[in-house]
Amino acid sequence: MTAGFEMWDYVVFIAYAILILGVGLWVSRDKEGHQKNAEDYFLASKSLPWWAIGTSLIAANISAEQFIGMSGSGFALGIAIASYEWMAALTLIIVGKYFLPIFIEKGLYTIPEFVEKRFSTNLKTILAVFWLGLYIFVNLASVLYLGGLAIETIMGFDMIYAIIGLALFAAAYSLYGGLSAVAWTDVIQVVFLVLGGLVTTYLALNTVSGGEGVLVGFSKVWEAAPDKFHMILEESNDNYINLPGIWVLVGGLWVANLYYWGFNQYIIQRTLAAKSLKESQKGILLAAFLKLIIPLIVVIPGIAAYVMVNDPSIMANLGEVGMLNMPSAEQADKAYPWLLQFLPTGLKGVAFAALAAAVVSSLASMLNSTSTIFTMDIYKQYFNKNADDKTTVNVGRISAAVALIIAVIVAPLLGGIDQAFQFIQEYTGIVSPGILAVFILGLFWKKTTNNAAIWGAVLSIPIALALKFIPIPAFEPWMHQMGIAAVLTMVIIVIMSNIQNKGAEDPKAIVISKDLFKTSPLFNIGSMVVCILLAVLYALFW
């Protein structure tokens, strides 16, 4: 057993890298006589089938913050962190039934574009700037940092070189090919992601069982750490501040999930690129089913690592390698990279390829969406309204490159954060309540006015910051802060809209009919199955 890579690990990883780059560049090529236009670059020519949409949604979502950050949270607080994944499955169904039909009917490129059609250019610009800042300084930077941390831990490379390497890898095909390259390579990335994740889970549980298999290992993990298998944490639990009991199910986590899956450009963009609404909804359903199994490959390894670290007999069998980069309560995010050290030659390369796939696919998705928002909502609005297709695509590539350079500079500054998954959720939660309030009321309340939405979006930030930094014990869990900020923002928008319009409907209100939300029998049956499975999971781990 060795901590480093051996020849076959390098062979597997290099083969993976060549495959991804090859496929990315192949699907990016221009057809003879055809100049890549904005729809080709930003929406993959609106040609994605359901299975590409579903897998691409998961590849864009599952990144280093899940593999490393969520495993770290599994090590620190247990299965409760899986609420993010399992509730996301239900959220996806809501998005597919109630949000997507409106977005696709409007023929959107970007989520800020919807804001312009429903409200105004001014509000679109405000939210576009919000998103650009969030994607570059929180999402891109944190994914690069966590990916760099993994490479440094597993392979011993200096973090800054690891960050630059990941950035160049993602840029190599995504900057040239756009969403088409991102989505089609994501199909392959998900295969590596799931296979590598299952390999690591198998290794961890088999090690705990002393070679007696996965089921025995899971049973021993459950016996050794029963407190790690509660979805709903008691108020006395040290981690209640991050996952506040029943409020996870009925409170602020809905703000995070509805914002992320419904109004987040780098997620929703691939659903806008579908061949049709029904195709997009089938893709959403596939992603919902995949979400149910994600905790198996990102949370269970973290809990198993906790049991291993606290069992002297297991640690004795691991030898000196077990002492390298060992996770602890203060450095929980080392759990997943630590486990990868124990994989046999060859499989270590597969698991590392899975981690790289998670990082690179998310980077590529974020870069494409960052460039889409900048190009379509900032550049074409304020700098060159009549830009031709060649100029538009080139600006998209340049803006993505600039965003990546900034993120590479910021990423090392995130060193020292623990449970990075929680860090990302917490700081995204300052922006998401206001955006969610604007969109929910804009979509479904016809009296919402532009001025009220602008004031709501702008005031939501100081409201969220005040709730975060004013020491009120009842508001201490940041999920409570997120939920309260969303409700207060909605109240502001409702009051101002009623004052301005005196109860009348806004001229730009969306006309909604029952027929708009009709879904196929397949979608309805699949949705019921997801809900039943969720009920069973929560009953088992309550």
Radius of gyration: 23 Å
- Summarize the main sheet: none
Shape: globular
The number of distinct helices, counting runs of at least 4 residues, comes to 24
- Classification by helices and strands: mainly alpha
- Mean pLDDT across every amino acid position: 83
The oligomeric status of these chains comes to: single chain
Helix content: over 70%
Strand content: under 5%
Spatial gap, N to C terminus: 38 Å
Family: Belongs to the sodium:solute symporter (SSF) (TC 2.A.21) family.
Transmembrane segments: 7-27, 48-69, 75-100, 126-147, 159-176, 183-205, 245-263, 284-309, 350-374, 395-415, 427-445, 452-472, 478-499, 520-541
Protein name: Sodium/sugar symporter
Main location: membrane
Descriptive overview:
By secondary structure, the protein is an all-alpha fold. Helices cover 73% and strands 0% of the residues. Helix 4 crosses helix 20. The relative contact order is 0.18.
Structure keywords:
542 residues, 24 helices, mainly alpha
SSE topology sketch:
Layout: H1 7-28, H2 38-43, H3 50-61, H4 64-77, H5 83-105, H6 111-118, H7 121-155, H8 159-177, H9 179-208, H10 214-224, H11 247-250, H12 253-263, H13 265-272, H14 277-298, H15 300-309, H16 312-318, H17 335-340, H18 347-383, H19 389-410, H20 420-428, H21 432-444, H22 450-469, H23 478-501, H24 521-541
Helix pairs in contact: 1-8, 1-9, 1-18, 3-9, 3-13, 3-14, 3-18, 4-7, 4-15, 4-20, 5-12, 5-14, 5-24, 6-7, 7-8, 7-18, 7-19, 7-20, 7-22, 8-9, 8-18, 8-19, 9-10, 9-14, 9-15, 9-18, 12-21, 12-23, 13-18, 14-24, 18-19, 21-22, 21-23, 22-23
